[in-house]
């Protein structure tokens, strides 16, 4: 009578999956995604409460680029609102934006936890690097937008006043400025996006390098949108920064692909 040797259990770190978390079904992925989204929304909600408590003080900080642009155009630097609820609505809106920024480290951590089950164990140890780099890039994009991009864009827009006197509505201005701030913050996440695309096998260093000319074209279009001032050096600065981030992304993709190749070779050697 022969006995069948016990089969190794499938689970975390089992040999069958090459030191990868046990495979999850499609429904398991949906459940995990829902859990991470709920946690992220709760974190944004908590951040929004904190943001609402400081948003009234932050209004002056956000208004400074517009006031400086008006002063540069020799205009009164007073912003107006045209409805009784204008300021209150603005405080609430800014509070939610601040909540997203405050909660961003936790949100990026939830993104990592969703992706981590498909990674090798040594790749999962990079969680701190991933979260820190994601937050640092996001905040760097916001800082670049606030101190460099937004002032140039506003000065350009105000220069078209013609024979009219600009009366800037705080609500319309804040919609524009917060869109630029958050938009640049997300654009600076390009290396993180390339990291994820490389993990799932969509992007490779060779593919990214081969298609760099198309990337440069897209970067030029984005730079033209965010820096409408014709002939300004700011567009070149923006393009140089985005191209640098793209090249950093190629380096990140190379490290990811090399790590996956080494892990696959080690798994094949064990067999």
Helix/strand-derived category reads mainly alpha
- The value of Rg in angstroms is 24 Å
End-to-end Cα distance, whole Å, is 28 Å
Order of helices and strands: HHHHHHHHH
**How many helical stretches?**
9
Beta content comes to: under 5%
- The count of β-strands is 0
In round numbers, the mean pLDDT is 82
Question: How would you characterize this protein structure?
Answer:
The chain has 271 residues and is mainly alpha-helical. It has two domains: 18-186, no CATH class; 189-265, no CATH class. It is 74% helix and 0% strand. The protein has nine helices and no strands. Helix 1 (26-72) crosses helix 2 (86-115), helix 1 (26-72) runs parallel beside helix 4 and helix 2 packs antiparallel against helix 4 (127-158). The longest helix has 47 residues, at 26-72. The radius of gyration is 24 Å and the shape is flat. Mean pLDDT is 82; it is low at 1-22.
Summarize the structure.
The protein is mainly α. The protein has helices at 26-72, 86-115, 121-124, 127-158, 170-187, 190-199, 205-210, 212-226, 233-270. Helix 1 (26-72) crosses helix 2, helix 2 runs antiparallel to helix 4 and helix 4 crosses helix 5.
């Amino acid at each position: 009578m022969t006995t069948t040797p016990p089969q190794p259990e499938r689970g975390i770190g089992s040999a069958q999956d090459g030191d990868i978390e046990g495979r999850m079904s499609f429904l398991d992925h949906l459940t995990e995604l829902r859990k991470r989204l709920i946690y992220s929304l709760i974190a944004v909600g908590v951040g929004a409460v904190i943001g609402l408590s400081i948003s009234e003080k932050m209004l002056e900080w956000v208004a400074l680029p517009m006031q400086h642009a008006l002063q540069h155009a020799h205009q009164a630097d007073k912003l107006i609102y045209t409805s009784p609820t204008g300021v209150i609505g603005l405080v609430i809106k800014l509070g939610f934006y601040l909540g997203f920024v405050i909660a961003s480290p936790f949100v990026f951590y939830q993104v990592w936890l969703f992706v981590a089950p498909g990674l090798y164990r040594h790749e999962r140890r990079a969680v701190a690097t991933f979260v820190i780099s994601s937050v640092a890039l996001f905040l760097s994009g916001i800082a670049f937008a606030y101190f460099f991009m937004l002032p140039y864009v506003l000065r350009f827009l105000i220069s078209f006043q013609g024979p009219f006197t600009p009366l800037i509505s705080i609500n319309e201005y804040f919609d524009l400025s917060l869109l630029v701030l958050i938009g640049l913050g997300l654009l600076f996440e390009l290396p993180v996006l390339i990291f994820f695309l490389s993990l799932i096998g969509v992007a490779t260093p060779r593919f990214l390098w081969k298609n760099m000319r198309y990337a440069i074209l897209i970067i030029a279009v984005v730079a033209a949108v965010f820096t409408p001032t014709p002939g300004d050096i700011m567009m070149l600065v923006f393009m140089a920064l985005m191209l640098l981030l793209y090249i950093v992304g190629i380096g990140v993709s190379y490290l990811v692909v090399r790590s996956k190749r080494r892990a696959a070779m080690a798994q094949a050697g064990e067999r």
